[in-house]
Structures are given as structure tokens and as C-alpha cells.
Records
---
Amino acid sequence: MFGYVTRRVLSAIPIALIAVTACFFILRLAPGGPFDGERALPPVTLANLRAHYNLDLPLIQQYFIYVMRLLQGDFGPSMVYNDFTVAEMIWIGLPFTLMLGFSAFIIGTIVGLVAGAISAVNQNKWPDYVLVLLVMIGLVVPNFLMAAIMQLAFGVYLDWFPAGGWQNGSLAHLVLPVTVLVLPHAGRTARLMRGSMIEVLGTNYVRTARSKGLGQRLILARHAIKPALLPVVSYLGPGLSYLLTGSLVVEQVFALPGIGKYFISAALNRDYGLVLGTTILYMFIILAVNLLVDIIYAWLDPKVRYR
Amino acid sequence: MKQVLKVEDMSVTFELHQSEVHAVRDMNFTLAEGETLAVVGESGSGKSQAFLAIMGLLAKNGRAGGRAMMGDINLIGMAPGQLDKHRGKDIAMIFQDPMTSLNPTLKVRTQLAEVLVKHRSFDQQKATIAAIEMLERVGIPEPAKRANAYPHELSGGMRQRVMIAMALLCQPKILIADEPTTALDVTVQAQMLDLFKTLTEDFGTSLVLITHDLGVVAGVADRMMVMYGGRAVEKGTVDDLFYDPRHPYTLGLLHSTPHIAHRAARLDPIQGLPPSLEHLPKGCSFNPRCAFAFDRCLVERPPLADTGNGREKACFYEGPMAYGKVA
Amino acid sequence: MAGITGKDAVLTEYARKLETLDAPKGRSLTQDAMRRLTRNKAAVVSIGVVIFIILFAFVGPYLIPWTYDKIDWSGIRKPPNFEAGHFAGTDQNGRDMLARIMQGTQMSLIVACVATLVSVFIGVCYGAIAGYFGGKVDAVMMRFVDIMYALPYILFVIILVVMFGRNPVLLFVGIGCLEWLTMARIVRGQTLSIKEREFVEAAKAGGAKPWTIIFRHIVPNLTGPVVIYATLTVPEIILTESFLSYLGLGVQEPQTSLGTLISFGSPVAETLPWMLIGPAVVLVSLLLCLTYIGDGLRDALDPKDR
């Protein structure tokens, strides 16, 4: 098990490097730059700006400089928000986004797993039908639409929760955005769990467990859970990825102080530094989560540990 | 001889979209203490379903009727919660494919120990020790090491031994083995059958051996029951049926098994195919393939009748049965 | 790609299973599957609704008085008014909402189809090549897929879209380039089992070159799973496109798409609810029905997978 963990961690490093490189070059190869504003700048100013940000150096050299700085935790300066480095900007917004994203992720996963298990055990009876319906709704309605609906329904018409904005530490302000993020994730997780659990409950080894007189509860807790979790756990990596990108929209709609809105405007304004920095950070987070997921998977399924 | 299991008028029916399929009908038999009963038949004869029904393991669309009396209690129709008090403890079952019948995510010792913990209230440690002892009993070398392994780390033969160990841990009165050797190599088969013989003698367990392989029957069983089209068609001791079969199907089965000592030019299967349970032939289910069928067989189904000496058969034909191609 | 509707997570499971099965289920893509599909009421109703929506989007504009970009100066921000021919009201610029919804639906559907075709094409080629050649080629190719899978793809989309400007063709292609991952996995799984079959051996013995074998023999046998996944990709793509349009990165004025309509409708939904309700209903219905159809197809072609 330890060997497996080490192998996975080590293989994550080249992946991270490739990801950073890919990101860097893709962004740079795009037409347009941070200084292609509405008004053309005088050539001298432009040249100075470019020199200041090292944009006049060969691309490869820029790349190496970037990576070296990155390894020291320096994401470089923001080219649009002149007074800030990228690291500072990220620091302003990222903690909030992460909090939003991870709480939605954890809540959504738990809700999804429980709902899926209940559905599977009661297959084709009324709890199953109700849950499947709710899951469908959660899955199909796009998050930006759901956000708008929730905001209108609960924030404006019913006035149960604030329709947006953020006050430090106020849970009430989080309820609607987190719900919007939780619904699709819980839906997908529940769907996967239901299918997987139904399949596991029909296997030969569960039949053997029944033949031993173990009882439904023991069978579920000991025999069914681990195998049923496998496909769901595989999904968690991409699931978090989606959740984080969904949070971009949710932050906009609910006017929350996360990194989302900075990212989009940075992308539109070709602020290489900020876009690159945020993307790389997201990537690292997701790679870390994927690593964790792989480890959990190996714990659940002993056959995988030799890979 | 004490009876451990008495099955009366048992039936198993499956509900499909628009119809019902009777997998087992009018089943009656008894199982004596310490005896080994072989249940023989082709796929679709209902042999597995009958015993899955007794164990309460039928698929969701299956219904069982009749009685399966183990002592005073009727296992058919019992609620799963009640059944759990007996399953694994008084009556146990082992299945055909040991690879898929063991949980791949749990260690062997966990899967073994849990029966003792559940039914005999052993604590974990005591149960594990008993499990390792049983593994040794069933012939697994280095039992402690194997107990700590996962099922996929063991060979097919070893996995089947684990299943046997698991079933016998609580010393049930009845052990049902559904095609236990079909998924194994022939050499391993022989070892397995020896194991069955030894264990059932040691523990005094009654064994039901479900199989389509007559070689397996010859090695281990005391009595046998032949099934066709969901019904029992002949019953008796193994010797009686092997040397003096009274049902044409039994005769056909015996003669279609190649004998290692006789060089045959061709294999002699029974002509035709087993019937679809949804469309059984009128009269005797076997009549389309029967060499001895006559007009009565086409309209009336022969009931399972006692022919004396503890034998029963479901056939109207009373003449001599010599094997040869009868038109 | 983090499947937006999670379909490809389900199908990744399916892909994994296909790698271990031996016979391709593509054979039954005929009356057998059709029969099972027609028995699925949800799927049948959904097919009807989708057909209706398609007609609505493409034939509808000929049946109503206004076009999507014509401004009615006398009716700005008006609720549905049957006399003036504005059956779904008008927007802040005085344009007819119903016409705009129809046009938006057209756009979403076209993007979805083109992008699906792109992703099918890339996915099938990639997966078939990886599966057929196996060994190192396969290992490297699939590792690439694994890496791509783990990355926050939508960020890349946004970057790509920003890079290449708001060219609609590139939008289609770009989105298509996202969705091919799971298709590739499934195709690879199927290829692995198909290539062991006798007719492939026969083709090889007859001296056929690898490319011929792949495209003439293997690919035609892939139709089953490919069709299923393609059908399930469509709602994902519509979602992705809506998402981008919502952020302002998708389709540009005066053209519109369902996502853009919703992005304009949401902020004013309190006072001008008809601007949100129409497009929302169409979008959700479309996605719901496509999902049911996709599920129905999957069940029809592999009933054990329920």
C-alpha cells in the first residue's frame, strides 16, 4: 500500500509539470496580449511595458523564468491589476472559493451517497422513485439557471435567505450558493451510487453473504459498501473539477468574493499572469484530490495495489 | 434413520413480463441424516432453483410454494429475518463459481470468521483461530497465511476449499453444494470429492450435491434424484439407478457419459434439446426425445410413483430397457 | 472531461466493463434494441418532445410574424401580447422573444450536433487506434486521456475561446475537442475485444493494412456504444455551450443561444419573467429529454446495465 502511494505521488509530479507547460504555451500562443487595449499605446511605452514583464524575451526563456519563480511560490505580477502580484490576488479570492467549493463537494458527496444507497436498497419502491426524480432535476438544470431560480424563489419572493453578497462568517449567505453547487454533484453521485449498489447487491458474493445468514444491515455495511463505492470514488476527481468551475458562475450570480470573477475578467483582458496562476492552482488542487482519490480507491479495491 | 429435511409439494415460479415460468413443480423428497443425495439434471431442469428457494435466495421475481421442513420449521415462505437465524448455521450452501462467490474486497479470514461471530457469538479472535483450523481441515497449506489473503490471491481449488470451510464452520446439519466442481480442473475435482466425503463423515452433515456430471455422483453420493423439466423423474440409490435405470432419461444420461475404459467411435448424446420451461410438451415432458414413448405418453403426464425398494419413477413404460436406437 | 451531466462518469464505468467483456454488443442494434427502446415510455415521450423542439426551432420561425432581430419600437419590454404577435413578449430592445427563443434553440442544437460529430470523430479515431495497436502506443495514449480527464477542462475552454475570439465555428470545434475523452475510452475498450475476433484475423491474413482493418472492419462494429454516447454527449455540449454563452464567451449578438437568453433574462427576471421562463423551459426540457433518450438507448442496448 505504501509502495502504491509513493508511486502515485511520484507520477503526479511529471503530470503537474506537463500541465503547467501546456497551460503556459497555450495561453501565450493565443493572439492578443495584455496591452491590446482600446487605445493603442505609444510604441515606446509598449516596449517598456513589455520589457518590464519580460515579454520581449524568447518564449522559451520566459517559460523557464516562470517555472523557476513558480517553484519559489511566486506567480509573477498581474499585468492588469498593476498593484498586485498574482499570488496576492489569488490569496484574496481563493480561500473563499475553496471553502465554497469544498463544502459543497463534501456535502454533495455525502448526500449523494446516502441517497443513492437508499434508492438502491428500495429499488422500484416509492423512496427510489422520489429520489430518482430529484436527482434528475439536479442533474439536468444548468447551474446558472438553478442559481437564478434559487435566487428568485428563496432570495426574493420567499425571502428566506439573502439573495447575494457576503458578510463575514454569515452562514445564511452561503445557503443558496452552496445548494446550487451541491445539487448537480449530489445528483450525479447518487445516480452512480444507485447503479453501482444495485449491481453489487445482485452479485454472487452478496448471495453468498445472504446464504450465511448475515442479515441485510451487516451485508450492506460490510459486504456491499466497499465494492459499491468504487465507481463513485473514480468519479470524485472529475466531480470536484466540475464543482470548482461551477463555482465561477455561482460566485458571479450571488456576488461572492471568490476568485471566480477575477478569473473571467483576467481571461478577457489577457492578463497572462493571473489566468495562468489561477489555472495552475486549480490544476494542482485537482491533481491533489485525484491522488487522494486514487489512494482511497486502492484501499477499497485490493486488486489495484500492484499497479 | 433420522430425517433432516423433508420437502413436500414444492414449486418455484418466476414472474416474467407477460407470463409465468414454472421452474420447479411437485417436488417431494427427504434427506436423511448423514446421507449424500445427488440431484442430477441438465441446465434448466430446475435443480439449482429448488435449493435456492429453500435457502431463500431466489431472484426478486421468484415465488416458492410448498413446504421444506427442517425439523418443525418450514423454510419456504419464511421471512428473511427469520431465515437468517438458520442460514449459515443449520443449513448452508456453496456455489458454483468460487471466484465470484467470495467478496473481493474482504480478506478470507473476515469472510470466514463472520459466520462464527454471528451465529455462535464468538469474539473476533476466537473466530479467526477457529477459521484457520478449518482451513487446515479442508486441506489448505499454510492456512494462517492464506487466511490473511484476499480471494483473488488464491487459486480456484483453494477458493472452493475456502467456501467449503466457510459453509462448515458452524457445523450445519445440511450442506447444499451447487455444481461445486464444475469450475475446477479435473484433478482438483477428484480432490474436492474426497474432501466432501471425509468432511461429511467427520461432521455427520447431510450433503445435497447438485450436478450434471455423473462421474461426480458415482464418487460420492448414496442416493440420487434425477430431474427433468422442473420435476423429479426418478429416485433411488446410486447403485440402483446406475445399474438398473427405470426412466429413459436416466438411461440416456448414463449412456451419454463417455467411459474411460471403452473406446467409443462416437459420443451418444440424447437426441433433441431440453424443453423450454415456458412451453413444455403435452403429456410427459420427455416424450419428444424418448426412445420408448407410446401414445399414452403424449397425452398424460406420468406421476412420480413408488416402484418398491425405495425407488420411484415417473414413467409409464414398463418394458426392458436395453440401450439401442429405437425408432 | 468532467461530464457536466455526469453521463460520462456513468459511461466510464461502462467503458471499463467493455474492456473485460468478450463479445461486442453492437450486434443487437436492430429490432431487438428497438423493441426494448419503444417499451421505455420515458424515452418514447422524450423522443416526441425532442422532435417537437427541433420543429419548433427550425420550422417555427416561418410561422410567426416577427424575426429574431427585428425591433418593434412600439413594444419594448412588453409581456406576452397575442394581438401584436408577440406570443412570448419582447425583450429590452423590443425584439420578439418567441423568435429569439427559436433562434437560440436553433443555435444550441446546431452547435450541439457539430460539436458531437467532432467529438465522435476524434474519439473514435483516437480510441480505435489506441485499442488496435495496443502496447506502448495504447499506454501512452490512454495516459494522456487520464491526464486530460483530471484537469479543470472548462478553464481550458474559456482560455481557448478567449484565444480564438468569438468565432462560432471554433466554438463548435473547441467544445467538440473537450468531449472526445470518454468516447475514446469506450471505443478503445470495444476495439480491444473486437480485434480478437476471427474476421479481424482473417483480414490480417489477407494482407490488409492496419488502417484498412481499423476503419473498414473495426469501426463499423462500434456503432452501438458510439451511438449511445453520442446521444448522451449532446446534452453535455448544450450545457457547455450555454455555460459559455452565459458568461458572455459564446455566441455573439445579434445571434443568440439559449444560454445567452438566460443570461439576459436572469437579472431582470423579477420584472420581466417572460424573458427567463421561455428559454429556461426549452433548455430544461431539451436536456431532460435527451437524457432520458440516452438512458433509454443504453438500457435497450445493454439491459443488464440497469
---
Amino acid sequence: MSNELIDFVIVSVALLAIGIYGLSVKRNFIRMLFAVEIVINAANLNLVAFARFLPHSGGQTFALFSIAIAAAEVAVGLALIIVAYRMYKNIDVADFRSLKG
Amino acid sequence: MVDSLFLGIAVLTIVSAIAALEMRSLVYGGIALMGTLGGIAGFFILLDSPFVALFQIAVYVGSIAVLILFTIMLVKRELIFQKKEDTKRRYAGIGLMLIVMISLGAIVFNSGISSITTDEPAVDYREIGEDFLIYYWPALVAMALVLAGSVTGAMILARRHDEVEDEQRTD
């Protein structure tokens, strides 16, 4: 292979940092979901890269599990967005105040 | 040595990830997110894992991105283009991003992974199948139940309570 493990890990670190930026700055529910997806994909990239270079099948298996669980998470997240939009007529998380003490 | 294909996919993935978060319109942001997810699938192909790449395209680019786009279209037009942001928070976020990037990058460069290379053949599909059906079958069953439960839960959550509204109207 012409590419090394560290190249993939660096891309993964960059994606993780972008995801953390999105989670900390954005107040839009859908954009926060985008950021979560980017973080999950960074983790999956790491899993598959290490699985290729060790080499071990476990990384690919766990990446497949992770993709399936992420699909479930997005389904619930989008349903929550729809419910929150119906209740507050907004998707800004700063406006979701029902659970605040 | 990094080849040009890797470099192209890396640029596509990172630029579209930034675009997904920074584009004014949520619809274009969702399309940019599809670019990021597709780029990750490209990395999986470069890593000799075509099965995971196809799974990624089918699940992420195929279903999740479309689901996100449809949800965006259910939201009011003004909210799609709304971009309320605190400047201080934005600079703090950029600082946090740089700190994460630099500290994790330093850890990665100082660890021994820069010396890891491989000439061994890629993992076979059969090994993944054995993993799923022999070693991790309870996890596979649990995952199936979680998926079924979450999709059912999502449908119940998003359901309109028309009966209650009808009763209120008749009252």
C-alpha cells in the first residue's frame, strides 16, 4: 500500500476536530446532528484503517456495527427534531427550555 | 508516500465537512454532508475494505442523507436559512478545534504508528462473516433489536396526534 496508517489517522483527527467545532458552536439541531455524523465517521475511518494495517477483521466488523447503530441514532434524532419543531416552531436548541429547572 | 487519489479524497472529505457546517442553506449543507460520507466510503475502498464501503454508501449516502434532506424540507423556509451565531462562541469553537487538532496530532506523531506499514493481504469477507455469526452473534441480535426498537420509537415519536386534535375540534 502506498498510503501509510498515519495519513488516515491524520484525516480522522481533522474530521474529529471539525465535528467538535460544530457541536460546540452550532445551535441548530440539524447542524449538530451533522457534526455528530462527522465525528462518528472519523471513528469509523480509524477502525477500518487500523483493521487494514494490523491486519485484523475486528475493526471492519465493529465499523459495520457502528454504521448500523448510527442509522438508528439518526432515525431517533430526526424524529426528535420533528417533535421539537412541532412544539416550539423552531430548531434552535437554545429555545428548547422545557427541561430547564 | 501519499498518492494523489488519497489527497483528492482527503480534500473532498474535509472541505465538504466544513461546508456541511458552514453553508448558509441547510439543504446545501446536507448535500455537502453526503460528500463527506462518500469521501469516507472512498477511504474505505483505498483501505481494501469494499464491503464496509458499500455498506457506508447504502446506509449513509443512500438512506441517512436522504432522510436528513427530507426532514430539512419539513422545516419552515426561514429556519433553513437562519444562521444565528455568537461571534465569541465561534472563536472559542475555532480555538477548541485547533487545540484538539494540535494535541491529538502531537500524540499521533509521537506514537509509534508512523512506522506501521503492511504488505499483508486484506481481510477476507469470510473473516467478517465468521466474526458476525460465530463470535459476535449476540451483539448482532442485540443490534437488530436496537434498530427495530429505534425505528419503531422514531415513528411513534414523530406521529401526529390527530385523534386528540379531532376531539379538541369537536369540543
